[in-house]
Automatic annotation (TrEMBL):
Family the entry assigns: Belongs to the CdaR family.
Domain CdaR GGDEF-like, residue spans: 178-290
InterPro entries with a match to the protein in the record: CdaR-like_regulators, CdaR_GGDEF, PucR_C-HTH_dom, PucR_C-HTH_sf, RsbRD_N_dom
Record protein name field: PucR family transcriptional regulator
Domain RsbT co-antagonist protein RsbRD N-terminal: 20-165
Residue span(s) of domain PucR C-terminal helix-turn-helix: 342-398
Length: 425
């Protein structure tokens, strides 16, 4: 029976949709834990889902191999999540509460997968018992280590030079009332001016891990290109900074092309005035960051709000965007080579105002090929383009994001394509 249990554990673990499970855990945690719930902060929700995914992967790997939970190491992504909680002053109690939520959901998913197997009842019972033991053991170990990590990070953060300014920035962004002049003096940055906000982060898909100073320098370089003189930069985790710049030369139409060195990426908000503008431009930069991730922009890209505003609006609710694309495109939304080819042709066809000649030139194919593909797409969609061109074009653009049109899929897409050591504490 030992071999049946061993084989069964591996098969059960492999059958779990880790991204979907992580999304359920992360969304549930952000919904029920008040400290994590901020309807305007999609970054924190996504970071929580990414931390959940790293734990789900660790649990499935450990349970699938019937290892002892004492051998598991807390994933680096989760350590980064805890560092963000510490920097934002979110209470340490959120950590064990997240693990209790994760334990309950994981246990239910594993038990369901176990009892759907064709196996003797004794084997199922043993698998369920092993799964519960592993989950409880892992949660006890991980949550205990993370609480210790949080306390160390919080102590370091409070003593650090950036902490006071970051706390003031968080107060402004959360909508708490602040004294404009006193806060400007404390920040060393005049809030009663037009600002452009920036976010600079390290591409999580990259093996390089630039130091915080590299992110700050990149923010200063972008500010210089924008014509900024004053600059405020605060850390927002181990691999991201938030920044604002102002100055008399800053305009509403920044340079069209700004690049930074990979593996860094950046998003730039619009020109907005005063304290409210400080918050609004930052929101726009956040939208740009999310859009860059959803559409898998290359490292070194700087996303401008004016260029991604529509895409940001379309992807504000990833699940709704995914459902819209699926309902609008039907079979054409499937992830097959044929569907991808037809979608690409149809999107270029719309962009070229339904010109067969210009579409063929852009795609580098014969005009007859374009006509054949467009006809195939029409047959699949079962509708005329005349009445639903706008809806179809939006759906085609969304379909380009593929699996990223869900928080769990986006978490998976942000992982590097090579093995990353599981750094312990």
């Amino acid at each position: 029976m030992a071999q049946e249990v061993s084989d069964g554990a591996a098969e059960v673990a492999a059958s779990v949709d880790e991204a979907e499970l992580a999304e359920r855990i992360g969304v549930r945690a952000v919904t029920v834990i008040a400290d994590l719930h901020d309807a305007n902060d999609k970054d924190l929700e996504q970071l929580t889902i990414e931390a959940a995914l790293s734990n789900v992967q660790t649990v499935m790997r450990g349970f699938g191999a019937l290892e002892s939970p004492s051998e598991a190491q807390v994933p680096k992504v989760t350590l980064n999540w805890v560092s963000v909680l510490a920097q934002r002053g979110i209470t340490v109690a959120a950590i064990p509460r997240c693990y209790v939520i994760g334990l309950g959901i994981c246990d239910a998913v594993l038990r369901d997968a176990i009892y759907r197997r064709q196996a003797p009842e004794e084997v199922k019972w043993q698998l369920a018992s092993s799964a519960s033991q592993y989950l409880f053991g892992y949660c006890e170990k991980a949550s205990g280590e993370l609480v210790d990590h949080y306390q160390r990070e919080r102590e370091l953060w409070v003593r650090g030079a950036d902490s006071v300014r970051a706390e003031l920035v968080l107060a402004i962004l959360s909508g708490r009332p602040v004294d404009l002049h006193a806060t400007s003096a404390a920040l060393g940055y005049n809030l009663d001016r037009p600002h452009i906000a920036m976010i600079v982060w390290s591409d999580p898909r990259s093996p390089d891990n630039p130091p915080l100073q590299a992110l700050k320098r990149a923010a200063a370089e972008i500010a210089h290109r924008l014509g900024g003189i004053e600059l405020l930069v605060v850390p927002a985790g181990e691999a991201m900074v938030w920044a604002w710049t102002s100055g008399p030369a800053i305009g509403a139409h920044p340079p069209p092309h700004i690049d930074i060195d990979a593996p860094l990426m950046a998003a730039v908000g619009g020109l907005c005035h005063g304290l409210e503008g400080f918050v609004e431009s930052h929101r726009q930069a956040r939208d740009g960051r999310r859009t860059s991730r959803v559409f898998s922009q290359r490292a070194g890209t700087v996303a401008h709000h004016r260029d991604v505003a529509l895409a940001a609006l379309m992807t504000h609710d990833l699940s709704a965007a995914r459902q819209f694309a699926k309902e609008e495109l039907g079979e054409l939304s499937s992830d097959t080579e044929r569907s991808r080819r037809l979608r690409e042709t149809l999107l270029v066809f719309f962009e070229e105002n339904m010109s067969w000649v210009r579409t063929a030139e852009r795609l580098g194919v014969h005009q007859n090929t374009v006509m054949y593909r467009v006809q195939q797409a029409k047959e699949i969609l079962g509708c005329s383009f005349d009445g639903r061109r706008l809806e179809l074009e939006v759906a085609l653009r969304l379909a380009n994001a593929g699996a990223n049109l869900s928080p769990g899929g986006l978490a998976s897409a942000g992982q590097p394509d090579w093995p990353v050591p599981q750094d312990g504490l």
